Structures are given as C-alpha cells and as structure tokens.
Amino acid sequence: MQQFKELIERQYQANLPFVLYHKPQEAEVNLMTQTDQELFYLNDTVNESGFVFAPFDVSQKAIIFPHKQTNSFSFPHQMFLEKQPFSKGFHYKEDARQAEIYQELVNKAIASIQQTELKKIVTSRVLELPVEVPQVSDLFHRLTATYPDAMTYVWYHPKVGLWAGASPETLLKVKHQNLETVALAGTRHESDLSAQPFTSKEYEEQDLVTQHILDNLKPYVKTLHQSERSESKAGQLIHLKTTIKAKLKSQSLQQVIAQLHPTPAVCGLPTQLAKQFLEQNEAYNRQFYSGYFGELNFKSENKRSNRPQNIENQVFKSLKTSSNLFVNLRCMSFQDATCYIYVGGGITSKSNALAEWQETCNKAQTMLNVL
Ligand SMILES: C=C(O[C@H]1C=CC=C(C(=O)O)[C@@H]1O)C(=O)O
Fold it and tell me: Domain holding 36: CATH number?
C-alpha cells in the first residue's frame, strides 16, 4: 500500500496526469500515468487506444490518456479492502435558498414537459463545499472500498483539474462485435423502498430510456436483446435497470457512442430539445458530469488451446480489443479549496419538485460519505 501511495502522490505532486480506477467487481485496480503534461484529445474512436474522459457536451472534444504515452500498473483490489478507510462522512447542511432554486428549475422543467413535446428532462445542480483537496490516494481508497460495485476513479490532468467518482452506470461494453449497455433510471433511497415502492412515475421514466436506446441502436445491430427490468443497488440508492445486449453490424464504435450519449438518463427526451432546455435553464457548466469515461480499444492477449486437453501444448494467441465506458455520474471535482459535487434527476410530467430536491441530496451523499 505504501508503494502505491507514494507512486500516486509523487505523480500528483509533480503535476503529471494520471487515472486510477476500479471497474465494478474486478480483482484489480488500474493506474495509468502520463510522463508529461501534454493534453491529448481523442480524434479517432476506432484506431486510438487509451483512457477517455469526455464532457457532457458532444460539441466538445474528449480527452484521452493514450496507451502510447502512458505507463500502466495494476494492484489487487483486495489491498484496498483490508484496512477499512476512515471516512466519517462530511456533514454538510445546504441552505434553503439552494432548495428553492433547484425546485424552481424542476417546476420549470415540468411546465415545459406539459406544454411542449418534451417527455423528460434530466435537471442537475452543483454543490460547492469548502474542502481542502484530499490526498488523492486516500480519496481513491475510500471510494473503491465504499463502492466496490461501481466504477470508481480519480482522474487528474494539470490543465483540466481533479475529478473523482463512483459511477453506477455503464455506457457501453464492447468486445469484438458484442455490445452491452444499460438503461438506468428511477431512484429510491434503500431505507424508503419498502414504504414507498417504485411507481408508474419511475417505471415510465426508465421505459423512456430503454426504448430510446433500443430505437437508436436498431440500425447498427444484427441482433438486439433486452433483459427483464430489475432493481440495481448503487451505494445506498436503488435504481431500475434493464440490460441491453446486441451484436454490432460493424465495429463502428463512433456511431454507437453517438447513438448512446447522451442517453435520456442524463439529458432527456427528445434529446435536442432537452439539451436546449438545459442550456437555457441550468445555471452552470456540467463539464464532465454526465459525460462518459473509461477504457477505449484496450488490447488484451487471448490465449486458447486448439485441443480440449491441450496435448501438444499448442496455444493460439490473439489480441482482443475491448472498450468499457461508463457514464460520469456521482462525481465531484476539486479546485482552490472547493469541492464541487454534481447531482441530477430525471423529471417527467409526474415529478414532484420537493421529492426531486431530496433525491439530489441523497445522490450527493454518495460523495459526501467519502470526503
Ligand atoms: C442524473 C443522475 O442519475 C441518473 C441515473 C440514474 C437515475 C436517475 C434518476 O432517477 O433520475 C438519473 O437518470 C445523477 O446521479 O446525477
């Protein structure tokens, strides 16, 4: 652990880019470090390989830590579970004015949905906390120990900033031509679920996401399959989730990402109208919140024997390419002794502004727990 800590802190103190991440339930924690401060933008989704960090706004370019410019390390995830980290959680009381402002935004979204063809808008807000930047190795330790089922990460580039989070949502997994994605929406705190089970509001909210993904993927896939809807745990929150699997017609990842991002789980429906509403009414820049991030075109060696017993020990090696991208939710950034926590929720005609405010408070707790 000491070696790990020193490696990360040295990189951070030297103002050099790195990403530290743990994919849901994986045995290993990964670290990629860049040896200079150059900022690389993703230009070619098909041929470039590395860790991408993409903003919500699709008109802005994604950043990549390219494999060719980085060193990669891995550590056993077990190492982060042995000593339970020490967070007591950050007690933060939001003032009534913040609640008012957010509920006004939600009511405006509800009115727009009632008066136009908009069906759903995912409104969001940012909390500002006076917090010194924590030791990045400790922050990651707490995140990954607390949320082993999420995609946890700490990402840093001196020209962009420091981001961290615990995402519950896969944007896509692609291996060869096999694609997997999820429609995730609808939220309850686990302690409320038995008294207040999911209602038609959340089922409809989540159906919109599932249907949108299925419709958008159809032209690009040979087969398409959706799972039964289930309840999925993310920290202390429960969401509704449908898993969608498909066989792609070609490996055009660029087209597929364009179909999936931003989904109605983070923007709304119809997408362009919802985006317009957010541009006009959300009084802050989302930056990387509700964008996507993760492994793009990672190559791993695939070994297989041509005989069941492997008698002649003849092993074929082939390189497999896979991508694992996640939606950047339950995340925060740090700047000048301030921590910014980003939270939102899906609004439909059936939404209640006070309940939506409470939902964003519950979501913020995911990050407050590890500060
Ligand atoms: C927009 C967020 O969550 C999305 C993902 C799951 C459930 C959601 C909801 O219930 O509104 C949101 O669509 C967020 O966490 O900031």
Answer: 3.60.120.10
**H/E segment holding residue 178:** strand 178-189
Helix axes 2-13, 136-146, angle to 10 degrees: 130
Residue 312 lies in a domain: no
Phi and psi for 265 in degrees, rounded to 5?
A: -80, -20
- Note whether residue 303 is domain-resident: no
pLDDT attached to residue 284:
95
208 lines ligand 1 (CB under 6 A): no
Looking at the domain assignment, is residue 310 inside a domain?
A: no
* 23 token code pair: 């994919």
* CB 262 less than 6 A from any atom of ligand 1: no
Query: Does 233 map to a domain?
Result: yes
Q: Name the DSSP class of 41.
A: B
HSE-up (13 A, CA, CB side) for residue 98: 15
What's the total number of domains in the chain?
1
Token pair belonging to 26: 């994986």
CB atoms within 10 A of CB 336: 5
User: What is the CA(201)–ligand 1 centre distance, in A?
Assistant: 14
Q: Which domain holds residue 81?
A: 2-298+317-368
CA–chain centroid gap for 296, Å, is: 14
Give residue 101 CA to ligand 1 midpoint distance, Å. 19
| Predicted ipTM beyond 0.90 | yes
Closest-lying ligand 1 atom to the alpha carbon of residue 266: 1
pLDDT digits (tens, 9 = 90+) for 307-365: 555 544 555 566 788 999 999 999 999 998 999 999 999 999 999 999 999 999 999 99
The minimum-distance atom of ligand 1 relative to the CA of 169 is: 5
Residue given tokens 């705190």 in the structure block: 189
Q: Look at residue 299 in the predicted model and tell me its pLDDT.
A: 86
> Distance between CA atoms of 188 and 195, rounded to whole angstroms?
11
The model's pTM: 0.94
Q: Which residues of the chain have pLDDT under 70?
A: 83-88, 251, 302-318
- Are 3 and 31 in contact, with CB atoms under 8 Å apart? no
pLDDT of residue 311: 46
- 337 CA → ligand 1 middle, Å: 27
Name residue 227's beta-bridge partners.
none
